[in-house]
Design goal:
mainly alpha; Tetracycline Repressor, domain 2; 10 helices; about 75% helix
């Protein structure tokens, strides 16, 4: 039987899986290209065919995490039975759970977050822009259904993200218990929804 060779994208995905696991166990700073290559059962020379340095791998790892979070929000927007209010609550809780799962048990991953925050603001800005657009979709839906009265949909979406930063960034995940964060998130979003409601 002929064994199909892996595509370049499949190999890169394998590299990112191995790198993310190692970043989560030992930290970004202590991880080397040689160790990532070994985890992938490939030579360091072969690894360099796909990534020229560890920073490129880190950027793709972070980018993949961001895309996963964005997809979770898109799935919530697709659900036909949710009201705009429930969508806003759901997106905050969904990302909170995703981040808490990723970061609370793997504190060394924060090194990766700090690197991306400091050196790859372009990735962070793109991610925040996507999230802002998704929140704006929910606010626009609320305007159409009469649940909300939001004249500036994009500006209000930006403010919503700012108000829920604690639940949408990794920095607080290792400091608080998930249940505590969930309860606080529900209270904050409820306050915001009251401010958005049509009067």
């Amino acid at each position: 039987m002929k064994i199909l060779e892996q595509t370049s994208e499949e190999i890169k995905s394998q590299i990112l899986d191995a790198a993310f696991e190692r970043f989560g166990r030992y930290g970004f700073g202590k991880t080397t290209m040689a160790e990532i290559a070994k985890d992938c059962d490939m030579s360091a020379g072969n690894l360099y065919r796909y990534y020229t340095n560890k920073k490129e791998i880190a950027a793709d790892c972070a980018g993949r995490c961001m895309k996963n979070a964005e997809q979770l929000w898109r799935e919530i927007l697709k659900q036909p039975d949710l009201s705009p209010q429930n969508r806003l609550t759901a997106i905050v809780l969904e990302k909170l759970n995703y981040l808490h799962q990723q970061f609370s048990d793997h504190p060394p991953l924060f090194e990766l977050v700090m690197y991306i925050s400091g050196e790859r603001q372009d990735l962070v800005a793109d991610h925040l822009g996507t999230l802002q657009s998704l929140v704006a979709e929910i606010l626009a839906e609320g305007n159409r259904t009469g649940d909300f009265n939001v004249p500036d949909v994009l500006g209000t979406a930006k403010a919503f993200l700012a108000a829920t930063t604690k639940f949408n960034t990794p920095h607080f995940m290792g400091t608080f218990e998930l249940k505590e964060l969930e309860n606080e998130a529900r209270e904050v979003v409820q306050l915001l929804i009251q401010g958005l409601a049509r009067r």
